[in-house]
Amino acid sequence: MITPAFELSQEQHFLTITIHVPYARASEFDLYIDGEDFKLYAKPYFLRLTLPGRIVEDGREKASFDVDKGLFTIRIPKETPGQHFEGLDMLTALLAPKGSRSAKPLVEEMEGSAVTEEEEEEEEEFDWQIDQTPYVVTTEEELNSLCKYGFGNQRSGVFTRLQDELGDVIDVKSPDNTTAAERRQKRLDAEQAKFDPDHYLADMFEDDYIQHLLKYQPWWIEAKNEREKKLRTCLEQHTEEATVTFSEEEKDQLRKFTNKSYLLDKKASRQVWISLVDIILAYAYEVRATEGETNVESAWNIRKLSGTLSWLESYNSIQNVLESCGRRVLCYPLYRHFKLIVAAIHDTSVILQLGKACVLKCLLAIHRIFRENDPAYILNDLYISDYCVWIQKTK
Q1: Are residues 249 and 158 in the same domain?
Q2: pLDDT in tens, 313-339
Q3: Per the domain annotation, does 103 fall within a domain?
Q4: Per the domain annotation, does 145 fall within a domain?
Q5: Which letter does DSSP use for residue 383 in this model?
Q6: Are the CB atoms for 51 and 36 separated by under 8 Å?
Q7: Which H helix or E strand runs over 73?
């Protein structure tokens, strides 16, 4: 668990606590307010404060979450109006629990040895008394020394405190201290070790279901056919984009994104486009392999097939992307067949030709899949959300 950065302020009747939790989900905040105790759990963050005065939960408390800034703010009534809480700037002291677990006797006599089912269940509950380490802000100089990743390689320091929580999301260890060249070599070594000749040969010779998947028509093929039909009948000439419509859910997604401007130099812009192809390739394979039916493995499949998402890879060319995708399709998913690689490449080509509306629709689908998967939703913050905003502004 991560102890988030926080600060406290007070008025005559209220105590305000502001907590920085940029990687928490708004729907997953657990609060406990009782007297001198304040506790918050929002995976991967945990904060327990022992306050110098008593607060009360009486309906007057108000909370808000600024998603853009990652700030959770709660305003809580004081039990005794006008009381001044001393030492609100002594953050380390506030983190200390009321009692230390080490103060308990090493051997304690129990009245009975029987353990009831209720006691067993209570032991499995979240431990609100876990140790906390005060949050230390990483300086700009330290951030600059860390390796870059994320959309346009503009992020660093994210994994410094989140490595334990994100070990199931990415394959590279200590990404903040691993260069792009080191990540690439480790990725290639991992793929070499993972390749299973028996699995590959089985899929190659027993390919009845593979042939079935190859006949599947994703929604973008229908969009392509519709576009070609319109062009043939001269109803809509010189059309650069397909007639791709967005559902109400997708429109709601778009409304929730923050409008940003991206200052990318030529190198970063090229890298963003190349990584986009890698991500769309992984999604195209997933849609075909599941025949458009998203399942519990979809998030794993997409991030595993994309070197960008699983290894924070920065590809140098489209050729590198195609080689990587081919290798990973033959190493990781359930169906490992060369023709599925070719089909995914063709599908990606169609998606890109249909224009940015089609690409955006794919990105929104990836965003939903990751949003509903714990802890893959972090990849939305690192990559997919920015792609959803950026692609709308491309020309």
Answers
A1: yes
A2: 999 999 999 999 999 999 999 999 999
A3: no
A4: no
A5: I
A6: yes
A7: strand 71-77
